[in-house]
Amino acid sequence: MSSREIPEFLPNHTIDPDYLVVGLSPSSKKKLFKNGTFARLLTWFNAVNMLAWDFFNIITVDNSTDISLCDENRIKTKCENRKKIIALGGTVSRVLTKYKIDHYKIDHPSPRNRNLNDKEYEKQMLIKLKEYIHGTN
């Protein structure tokens, strides 16, 4: 199990409790990779001018995809009093929907996500994300 919420390899990360990014499970990786998930996430959030945000994973076990490990009370508590909640991927979105937590789903920023091979798709996703974050959606 891991107690990490914000990966320690995010340089100079600032938390804004109004904005919550929800991931699936912690990575066992200990550093930021050039084309890795968090490198892409940082690029996206810089592009949409969301420079500070809070983060947590719905599963606390490294690299797990077993949603039976989700703790409903923990998830609901983490999501309370947030202005915007962003779900990374479909699995996270389905869990948040199951618990009736309002959120906005974006693609998971994994290098294995084939949707992101289409740069126009990624561009349109970021336009919609920016609209959501800044209230024009």
Can you tell me the residue ranges where pLDDT is under 50 for at least 5 consecutive residues?
A: none
Helical fraction: 25-40%
Strand order of the largest sheet: 2-1-3-4
Structural class: alpha/beta
Query: How many individual helices?
Result: 4
Shape: globular
Quick one: biggest sheet?
A: 4 strands, parallel
What does this structure look like?
The protein has 137 residues and is α/β, with parallel strands linked by helices. Helix content is 31%, strand content 12%. The protein is built from 4 helices and 4 strands; from the N terminus they run βαβαβαβα. It has helices at 37-47, 72-79, 90-98, 119-133, and strands at residues 19-23, 54-57, 84-88, 104-106. It has a 4-stranded parallel β-sheet. β3 (84-88), α3 (90-98) and β4 (104-106) form a beta-alpha-beta unit.
Write the layout of secondary structure elements.
Blueprint: E1 19-23, H1 37-47, E2 54-57, H2 72-79, E3 84-88, H3 90-98, E4 104-106, H4 119-133
Parallel strand pairs: 1-2, 1-3, 3-4
Notable features of this structure?
137 residues, alpha/beta, 4 helices, 4 strands
Please sum up the structure shown.
With 137 residues, the chain is of the alpha/beta class. It has helices at 37-47, 72-79, 90-98, 119-133; strands at 19-23, 54-57, 84-88, 104-106.
